[in-house]
Amino acid sequence: MARVTVEDCILEIPNRFELVMLAAQRARQIGTGAALTLDRDNDKNPVVALREIAEKTVQQDSLKEDLTTSYQKVHLNDDDEPNLAELMDAEEKALADRAHLGMEAGMDTADDDEDEADDLESLAGISEDEE
Hints:
The chain folds into two domains: 6-71, RNA polymerase subunit, RPB6/omega (Eukaryotic RPB6 RNA polymerase subunit); 84-124, no CATH class. Helices cover 61% and strands 0% of the residues. It contains six helices and no strands. It has helices spanning 6-10, 16-31, 45-54, 60-71, 84-104, 109-124. Helix 2 (16-31) crosses helix 3 (45-54) and helix 2 (16-31) crosses helix 4 (60-71).
């Protein structure tokens, strides 16, 4: 079993930090079942990833792309533009459902407004007789 050192990989990826990130991404891929491009030789995933990078058996560009997308919170495709008409219809339906549920529960907004005005008047010490 040949040892892989960082010096073997630096020839391919000069930035050590980038090397670590790409090797870690490749090790994650291997851990989730990605096909190996070299024999494992009883090595663990990080060592196999470094060996693959040193021997140029993996594409650096695809590793960078996978790494970038793994850290993105929102994954949008070019054809995933939101349909504004559908969004507006959904919002109108939600508002109508809320209004319908309020009416079924016996809630009348006009009565609520009068009750609120009475509460404010009683707090202010004003009665209907004084008006």
